[in-house]
Specification:
CATH architecture of the largest domain: Roll
Domain 3-octaprenyl-4-hydroxybenzoate carboxy-lyase-like N-terminal: 8-84
Strand content: 15-25%
Domain 3-octaprenyl-4-hydroxybenzoate carboxy-lyase-like C-terminal: 322-445
Radius of gyration: 25 Å
Helix content: 25-40%
InterPro entries: UbiD (IPR002830), UbiD-like_C (IPR049381), UbiD-like_N (IPR049383), UbiD_Rift_dom (IPR048304)
GO molecular function: carboxy-lyase activity
Number of helices: 13
Protein name: Menaquinone biosynthesis decarboxylase
Number of strands: 23
Number of domains: 2
Structural class: alpha+beta
Bound molecules: flavin mononucleotide
CATH class of the largest domain: Mainly Beta
């Protein structure tokens, strides 16, 4: 889909878009409305009249559900997206004919490459005087510190010219300054540190607002560094992303509704928060003595009749639950590449994604469950997961009752439970006393092998197949099976 507008029209045709004609404020009113709509799974929303911002309309709840997302991205399984980049490496050439087939594959891959274009609709209008005052940013909860961009596409490249497009909340300070909340383990924070080491001075940054749904999804995806996120956008969209290079050198999606161009002065830090977060509590970075960099907005560019997009978080399951499920599916193929024993994974939506993960594996050797626990705690953003449960492949990780049965039947806590004290954890975790340090819990609920049972043999019940065969007719008659 070309841009956010085309996606909105597509949703409307499917009956998944609510148009709200009453004038509402982006401060508390629109966020509260969006939360209620999301809890009742009623679809996406387009607010036609925005109090205080007559130039704008506002879109919300664009991630209405996983099935809608699959249709929008034109895939039957979201895993197909994660499989696209991996196909490049599958069975690379050994002989001449293989070489030819991989050339064909490279050609196919070129469809996913980004392309820099000379024109972008958003360059039509520019404001240089207090550009941030023009943006209809949300205040999402009563005790939030102020107005926030809650789904900004923060675009930057690091000194090695690896490009990123990432969603980090942005707290507005005044018409020209804002605070970028990139957490320490994210690409933005790393690029900023690399700038400090290499150049000092200014780091060019741009914030795009509103794009096609595939690009919006890319920006929240934990794409492993140094894979270029602007390239990864092509894999998600099924087609290379068109990019526009701003005067400050930053590449942004050409289909954006608006773009704020500016820079981060690498030495300038500011307090951030409180902000009502996705656990359903106020995140207060100042209590952890965390400071974040200041973004200086130099100008905002925007399309005619611009449409703003912001997300609202709070107690699950809101829009980020759909996003989290999509990411779980898209990154499963990559997880399997690193850990081939992984069969499936479930980050349950009420577990707020970094809270709990359940992983099923093809178990081959004693201690295999613990190996997987440790590997996940060492892998990208999965490393932040607080509780991980590993089960054998016959247990469906998406069926919580099966998981509970596996824990009850295969876990001896002394043998199978790992607690890692003082590990790096999600700073938003409302349970830990000293964030970002917190403990981790790993439960190896895999079926145990004889070596793990000290010789004890337990026999699992099984029906007699001949008896089942004799009863087939009765099953049909009484149970309709
Ligand atoms: C609505 C929403 C808001 C988010 N806000 C933040 C944030 O303020 N800071 C942050 O570091 N990550 C935030 N994230 C998570 C990042 O977008 C996610 O970790 C992404 O992978 C980061 O991109 P990166 O891997 O390019 O650094 C948010 C995600 C969503 C869905």
């Amino acid at each position: 889909m070309k841009d956010m507008r085309e996606y909105l029209s597509w949703l409307e045709k499917r009956g998944e878009l609510i148009r709200v004609e009453e004038e509402l404020s982006p401060e508390l009113e629109i966020p509260a409305f969006l939360r209620r709509v999301m809890y009742s799974k009623a679809g996406a929303v387009l607010f036609e009249r925005v109090k205080g911002y007559p130039e704008w309309r506002i879109a919300g709840n664009l991630f209405t559900g996983v099935e809608t997302l699959k249709d929008a991205l034109g895939v039957e399984r979201l895993e197909e997206i994660g499989e696209r980049p991996l196909k490049l490496f599958e069975g690379l050439p050994l002989g001449f004919s293989d070489k030819l087939s991989s050339l064909g594959r490279l050609k196919e891959m070129s469809a996913y490459l980004p392309k820099v274009v000379r024109k972008a609709e958003f360059t039509k209008n520019v404001i240089e005087d207090n550009p941030l005052d023009f943006i209809p940013a949300f205040k999402t909860w009563p005790r939030d510190a102020g107005r926030y961009l809650t789904y900004p596409l923060v675009c930057f490249s690091d000194p090695k010219e690896v490009n990123s497009i990432s969603v980090y909340r942005v707290m507005l300070l005044d018409g020209e300054r804002a605070v970028l909340h990139w957490q320490i383990h994210k690409r933005g924070s790393q690029a900023w540190r690399d700038y400090i080491e290499k150049n000092g001075g200014k780091m060019p940054v741009a914030i795009a607002i509103g794009s096609d749904i595939g690009t919006l999804l890319t920006a929240v995806s934990p794409v492993p560094y140094p894979l270029d996120k602007l390239l990864f956008a092509g894999f998600v969209r099924g087609k290379g992303l068109e990019l526009y290079r701003l005067p400050n050198g930053v590449l942004v999606p050409a289909n954006a509704e608006a773009v704020i161009e500016g820079y981060v002065d690498v030495k300038e830090l500011h307090e951030e928060g409180p902000f009502g977060d996705h656990f359903g509590f106020y995140d207060k970075p100042a209590e952890r003595n965390e400071l974040y960099p200041v973004f200086h907005a130099e100008r905002v560019y925007y399309r005619d009749d611009p449409i703003y997009y912001g997300s609202v978080v709070g107690k699950p399951p809101l829009e980020d639950a759909v996003i989290g499920k999509a990411i779980e599916r898209i990154f499963l193929p990559m997880m399997k590449m690193i850990l081939p024993e992984v069969v499936d994974v479930n980050f349950p939506e009420y577990g707020v994604f970094q809270g709990i993960a359940i992983v099923s594996i093809k178990k081959r050797y004693p201690g295999h469950g613990k190996k997987v626990l440790n590997a996940l705690w060492g892998t990208g953003q999965a490393a932040l997961t607080k509780v991980i449960v590993v089960v054998s492949e016959d247990i469906n990780p998406h069926d919580i009752n099966q998981v509970i049965w596996a824990i009850a039947s295969f876990v001896d806590p002394q043998r199978d439970v790992l607690v890692i004290p003082n590990a790096h954890t999600d700073a938003l975790d409302p349970a830990v006393p000293n964030p970002p340090l917190g403990s981790k819990l790993g439960i190896d609920a895999t079926r145990k092998l004889p070596e793990e049972m000290n010789g004890r043999v337990v026999e699992e019940v099984e029906e007699d197949p001949q008896v089942l065969k004799r009863l087939e007719g009765l099953f049909k008659k009484y149970l309709g099976e």
